[in-house]
Amino acid sequence: MPPIEPPLRRPPGSRPSLRAGPGPALPGSPRINPFGAEDYTRAAEIHSADPHRQARAAGHRPGQSTYATGSAQNRDAAFASEIAWDRRAYAPGWSLGHRLAPARATPQRAAPRSAPPARDTAHDTARDTAPRSFWPFRRAAAVAHDPAPSRLAYRLNRMWLTPAFRRSLTVGSPIALIGFCIGLIAADPARRAYMVETVEGWHAALIDRAEFQVGTVSVPDVSPELRAMVMERLDLSLPLSSFRMDLEALRASVEAIDAVRTADLRIASGGDLLVTIVERKPAVVWRSRTGLELLDAEGHRIARLAARHAVTDLLLVAGDGASDHVAEALELAAVAKPLQSRLRGLVRVGERRWDLVLDRDQRIMLPEIDPMPALERALALDRAQDLLARDVTHVDLRHPARPVLRLSEGALDTLYSIRQSAE
Amino acid sequence: MIDPYKAQRAMRNMRRAAMQRGVIGILDVGTFKIAALVLKLDPSATPAQGSGVGQLAGQAGFRVIGAGTTRSRGVRFGEIAAMSETERAVRTALQAAQKMAQTRVDHVILCMAGGSVRSYGLAGEVELEDTTVAEDDIGRVLAACEVPDFGEGRDVLHAQPVNFALDHRSGLSDPRGQTGSRLACDMHLLTVDTSVVSNLVQCLRRCDVELAGVASAAYVSGKAALVEDEQELGAACIDIGGGATAVSVFIKKHMIYADGIRLGGDHVTNDISKGLQVDFATAERIKTFHGGVQATSMDDRELIEIGGNSGDWDKDRRTVSRSELIGIMRPRVEEILEEVRARLDAAGFDHLPSQQIVLTGGASQTPGLDGLAARILGPQVRMGRPLRVYGLPQAATGPAFSASVGLCLFAAYPQDEWWDFDAPADRYPARSLRRALRWFRDNW
Question: Looking at the predicted structure, is the pLDDT value of residue A71 above 50?
């Protein structure tokens, strides 16, 4: 190890300038521009002329080495990128998680008054590059800061990082607190009732506003009887808030009327309840055990009929269970169009098959299965041989392989006598 | 052979528990700094393309989610000297890492450079009962290794099988399922002072964490700093830390020798502190900023302000040239490297096919160290940085963190050690119930 020379004291400014100044910089040594001037040549001229005057003019005090300062700063800058993190790593008290706990050099004692007021530039540079606290007040430098958490703080921190504990504290305890408060408030029945009453009052005040009131009901395009029936069924005590109306239930009650096929309820502007109704269309008159009834094409009852002659243009059907097969009856009646002038109606026999009843008490008895071909066959016979104009009471087509004609008694006698005379 | 290393087995079980939980802590207790990392073990974790983190060298499968470093306190030569101080420093580092990871760490894997490690080469040989090598044959051959008397007060830290030989074929890494009649194995045994380890364990216990493994810093920094071909062909990793220097020799991807020297960067700092009559922190700063070991003529002209806090103007204005600083530092660095040379010579490093030397550790960042080391240790010297792992902060990627990163790899992919294989049944204590259970498990 070479002997360490004691540091020489030189008069201020008399140190030979090794690193600063014009001329080619040594390799690896950063070039110094102590004046911060952009024009390097000009700075060099000034420097060669009188460096210390310029230094003084730039605000430096004697006793502070301009060159050494510049040198230290520049070297730091040059090495900063290479050893930036290392410097932080080597700075005492630094840690990855303690960015805010800055490295602190050992406390600086104030220089005695007698010494020239010099700043320790090297130390200042090192300290300036160290991360600083954001805390606006600098702590007293004399207090040695121990970055280590206390045992209690460490344990609490670990507990806080336990997921279950954390969740119970951040989620569980607020919920529990709120629940407890609500429970406490709602424990008193009088207060509960008061709250319910208050809320209902607010609700009623809102929905009973004039804007929501329904004052009239209009049922367009229906007969006055049906309109009256609808009004009776709706049974509304107007005016009424639209929020208090159950339109679905009202619609169901309107559609429960036999004459109504579908109903559509709408609250139109101006507080008008618009009831649009599609009526059922009468298709047949059914003479049942209880009386005469009007049915639509689907066999649905429309209304009771006081007398048959009130409605003459509709087909008459009779017999139990006829209402369930109205569509078939209508089809048969349509096929039997050539006999329309003679057709009195259709009778459901034994709730299983149809009889066509003509005037002169003639009947065409149709089978239970496939009545249509049988009827067409009877019509063909009538067309070809004028069957129904003869003295026949029943055309029995119930068995397709064995059609039977039932003659009236006179005709039968005549037939017998002809046969006997022929023998 | 004696006890089947209950403590090591217990630590393995603890490690397995940590793996299941998915979070494990890494703690490198050094003389200069204490580094704590938090690993999230996730086998499906794939680092982004182009991040430099590979898949093959054991870097995948985990992610660093927390890191904390603090100045070490109460540690000398890699060993605990003042436990309460060390405990505070460990708490600081662990809390910082936990805060960054936003999770608590219950299991920690530890590495240490001190404890005067000694390594032994063991050999064992057994006749196979069957013609093929089964799992329990490995256990038998490991148990058959002749363990030297390493003395009182020492514990086994690593016992790694490094080579298997089946009849005349040697160099097998995994002989299981192969056919032969005689199985031999070489094992590398590393012992440390029991007191040093138990001090560290005690320290960790006071920090409320469970120990899930202990590793030698020499081994783990070699794992992190040596690249694959160096580990395969033969290389020495020299981890120059603050208070201790760890030496490990690798070949065929196994550590075959490890040693520790109780010298390090702190001694250099100490020399500077004494030589320049400054306090330790200033000496450290001067060493870090201006230090070196190779003086040039330029350095005579480069004056370093020493500074000081004495209040005496003359003393606080002292300067020293960089060559003087180098003059202080170089002999100590040479001494360290010569010690390393002596250890490597003792280990027979000259006989390895490749004699790559990798310098790592915080003190290896001294400028000019590689040139000096090339003179003393041999021509093939390079500076080593740890492997890149997923999620490691930039600030923790320097050579000072080789041991920490190696410990991450160790935690995620531990090498098979002796206690990972079941000892043969006849070596179990005469507990008939356990033996019956074992028989039941083996045969059903």
Answer: no
Residue type, A413: D
- For residue B128, the domain's CATH number is 3.30.1490.110
Q: Is the pLDDT of residue A99 over 70?
A: no
The last residue of a domain, from among B133, B157, B191 = B191
B370: CB partners within 8 A, 6+ apart: B359, B381, B382, B383
Q: Tell me, what DSSP letter sits at residue A171?
A: I
CB-CB contact of A64 with A119 (8 Å): yes
Q: Give the Cα separation of A185 and A182 in Å (integer).
A: 5
Residue B59 included in any domain: no
- Residue B336 burial (CB < 10 Å; 0-12/13-18/19+)? buried
Position A27 scores a pLDDT of 47
Give the model's confidence band at A32: pLDDT under 50 very low, under 70 low, under 90 confident, else very high: very low
Which structural domain range is residue B288 located in? 266-334
**Higher per-residue pLDDT: A25 or A421:** A421
B313 occurs within a structural domain: yes
The pLDDT of residue A23: 42
Inform me whether the C-beta atom of residue B297 falls under 8 Å from chain A C-beta atoms. Answer: no
Global ipTM: 0.81
Mean pLDDT of chain A: 74
* CB-count burial class (<10 Å; 0-12, 13-18, 19+) for B172: middle
* CB spacing of B396 vs A157 below 8 angstroms: no
SS3 A358: strand
Distance CA B248, CA B240 (A): 12
Q: Which domains are seen in chain A, by residue range?
A: 29-95+119-130 (no CATH), 212-279 (3.10.20.310), 282-422 (3.40.50.11690)
Average pLDDT, chain B: 88
Residue numbers in chain B where pLDDT is lower than 50: 1-2, 4
Query: Nearest by CB to A123, which of B307, B318, B398?
Result: B307
For B26, the enclosing helix (H) or strand (E) is strand B23-29
Answer yes or no: is pLDDT of A19 > 60. no
Judge: A1–B331 Cβ closer than 8 Å, yes or no.
yes
Choose one of B158, B174, B191: the last residue of a domain.
B191
Q: How many domains does chain B have?
A: 2
Cβ within 8 Å of residue B398, ≥6 positions away: A85, A86, A89, B362, B365, B385
Question: Does any domain span residue B180?
Answer: yes
Flag whether B394 is in a domain.
no
Q: Measure in Å the smallest separation between the Cα of B92 and chain A Cα atoms.
A: 5
Q: Is the pLDDT of residue A313 over 90?
A: no
Of chain B, the percentage scoring pLDDT greater than 90 comes to: 53
- Provide the CATH number for the domain around residue B322: 3.30.420.40
Assess B21–A contact: CB distance below 8 Å, yes or no: no
Question: Which carries the bigger pLDDT value, residue B51 or residue A295?
Answer: A295
Pick from A72, A109, A147: which is nearest to B70 by CB? A147
